[in-house]
Write a structure and sequence with these properties.
By secondary structure, the chain is α+β, with helices and mostly antiparallel strands. Helices cover about 55% and strands about 10% of the residues. The strands form three sheets. Strands 3, 4, 5, 6, 7, 8 and 9 form a seven-stranded mixed sheet that branches. Strands 1-2 form a two-stranded antiparallel sheet. Strands 10-11 form a two-stranded antiparallel ribbon. The longest helix is centred in the C-terminal third of the chain and has 40 residues, at about 375-410.
Length: about 575
């Protein structure tokens, strides 16, 4: 029987990283829940065993239910009638399976019926689900919204809404509008307070809303009359049971077809304020988007994993000129790069998830008691690293997923263009990953300050100080040279103090930093587990060429030539 967790040893490798000891200690508050909940762990080993067993359940559902349904869901898709969405039959089967298994509250506290898992195993579940069907991950993964509700809602709201999510209800985040895509400051959905009943009423239109007919919505709306910017926006909770929102249409999309992307019409929809007024965009959406970006990184990793398996399987079976096509250098190079980029994406995902886990757990503890000076410093350190690594993780993993699925079709040749093989669906599904929840270009905007302030360089130099296997010295030397090249171009660009010039080269500098980071992470993986060695060798040689290309381009670029690129 297929199990997407047990057939992929790299997941267990990342699950057992040394930092997990600290993560679990913080998340479990020294295992105090064991006295209140019979399913709470009694110690670290018990917690890790719990993660392992639940991930095995997720892997089984993915292998035996979600993946087999993926093609029919892609073909059938959701439908809309009388303002309500009906999922494809396979999607409904998937939802029923994960609800029955109690997988809708993985990262939420036990007092709301959640499993209280850290982000790391939660992202592993997302990785698995995405490998099975990236479109379904968009429904299952939106339980992320409950994390935002937990962080900023009041206790009454947590009790009323988070418990429902843990029991299997779905969520959506209603942010974008026809005239407000990435520019969320332009949101104009109107929120009006009614003093008579103490509720807010929402009117307007939302567009491109993933799972838009969900049970519970987090809605960004304009609460302050007369405002036009982000300071006039607040976050609201809308309950579908209260009515007032209809689905005007479902978008006809290129990929992730099982996930209904909706245009919603709000007509006096009753809602309640989440958190404080005016902080909807400035604070709450930023937190929500960072969480979503981590989820999209996991989605991209799952797609890359699936692409690699499709490519490898086909290349070993397909024969041309008397031998399997995997024996031809043009093909085996592509497959080796797909594997390396998949392992690269995954190691960056889980490094980021560990940073998020530590700072989020300490932030949560700070609401219960005063942190020690050491804990405050630890929280600050990991918050900064999470802020730096989230955008490069999302950018690199999603760009790699697009390239990997593209190359998988190429390996299939003409057959890959046909719907007889899954690779064409993977290619279509991957295309959105580097667009939604912030395009790659916006990830660069988020990451560039960590280039110019030295966050990435400091972390890379810290990685250089780690002990690696002696036989990895040659690869480490290549990484040190790459880092020197990266430092050189950053200095060259930033010393101009020309913001337009810095922005022009931002993507190249961010990519160079990411290549150095990923190379070191793969060396760390290889030091623990020899099975990562091939990916480390392939990736570092590939990255070496990429960084050299970046250095060559920047050092030979004349600032006066910038004018060639400007619109005329």
């Amino acid at each position: 029987m297929a199990n997407f967790y047990t057939d992929n040893p790299s997941l267990k490798h990342h699950l057992h990283h040394p930092l997990m000891k600290r993560i679990v200690e913080l998340k479990e508050r020294n295992y105090t829940d064991k006295d209140k909940f019979d399913y709470a762990p009694i110690d670290f080993e018990d917690a890790m065993d719990s993660y392992d067993k639940v991930l095995e359940i997720v892997g089984k559902i993915c292998g035996e239910i979600i993946a087999p349904n993926a093609e029919s869901v892609d073909h059938e898709g959701p439908t809309v009638a009388d303002g309500r969405v009906t999922y494809a039959r396979g999607t409904q089967e998937n939802l029923d399976a994960v609800r029955k298994a109690g997988l809708m509250g993985i990262a939420l506290p036990r007092r709301y019926n959640g499993l209280n898992f850290p982000i790391v195993p939660y992202m592993m579940a997302a990785d698995l689900v995405s490998r099975a069907d990236a479109g379904f991950e968009n429904l299952w993964g939106l339980q992320d919204c409950a994390e935002t509700l937990y962080e900023f809602g009041n206790e009454d709201q947590r009790q009323r809404f988070i418990t429902r999510v843990c029991d299997g209800e779905t969520m959506s985040m209603d942010l974008t509008e026809p005239d407000a895509g990435s520019d969320l400051q332009s949101v104009m959905l109107k929120a009006t307070y009614n003093e008579a009943d103490g509720y807010w009423y929402l009117n307007g239109v939302k567009r491109f809303i993933t799972n838009g007919d969900a049970d519970i919505h987090l809605v960004l709306a304009r609460s302050e009359e007369g405002t036009r910017d982000g300071r006039g926006l607040s976050m609201f909770i809308y309950d579908k049971k209260d009515g007032g929102v209809t689905v005007r249409r479902i978008e006809n999309k290129l990929g992730i077809k099982g996930s209904p992307t909706c245009e919603l019409v709000y007509r006096n929809a009753r809602a309640e304020l989440c958190g404080d007024r005016k902080l909807g965009l400035i604070k709450y959406v930023m937190v929500l988007m960072n969480s979503a970006r981590l989820g999209i990184t996991a989605q991209a990793v799952g797609l890359s994993e699936s692409a690699y398996r499709e490519a490898y399987s086909y290349a070993t079976e397909r024969k041309q000129f008397g031998k399997a096509i995997i024996e031809f250098p043009a093909v085996y190079e592509m497959i080796a790069l797909i594997r390396a980029k998949t392992d690269a994406s995954r190691t960056l995902l889980y490094e980021t998830a560990r940073f998020v886990d530590i700072y989020k757990a300490l932030e949560d503890i700070s609401k219960e008691r005063k942190l020690t000076p050491e804990e405050r410093q630890e929280m600050k350190k990991y918050a900064k690293l999470a802020d730096a690594f989230t955008p490069i993780g999302k950018a690199m993993a999603t760009e790699f997923a697009n390239q990997n699925t593209y190359d998988t079709i190429q390996i299939h040749g003409g057959s890959g263009f046909m719907k007889d093989y899954a690779c064409e669906r993977l290619y279509r599904d991957a295309r959105i990953t580097n667009i939604y929840e912030g395009t790659t270009q916006l990830q660069v905007v988020a990451a560039i300050r960590h280039v110019t302030t030295g966050t990435y360089l400091a972390k890379i130099r810290e990685y250089e100080g780690l002990a690696y296997k002696p036989e990895l010295d040659d690869l480490k030397k290549k990484l040190i040279t790459m880092t020197d090249q990266y430092e050189k171009v950053v200095t060259l660009v930033t010393e101009t103090r020309d913001n337009e010039y810095i922005d022009f080269h931002a993507r190249r500098m961010v990519e160079a930093a990411a290549h150095c980071v990923i190379g070191h992470l793969l060396l760390q993986d290889t030091t623990v587990d020899e099975s990562f060695r091939r990916s480390a060798e392939v990736y570092i040689n590939y990255a070496q060429a990429e960084v050299k290309k970046i250095e060559s381009y920047i050092t030979s670029f004349d600032r006066e030539d910038l004018g060639y690129f400007k619109p005329h």
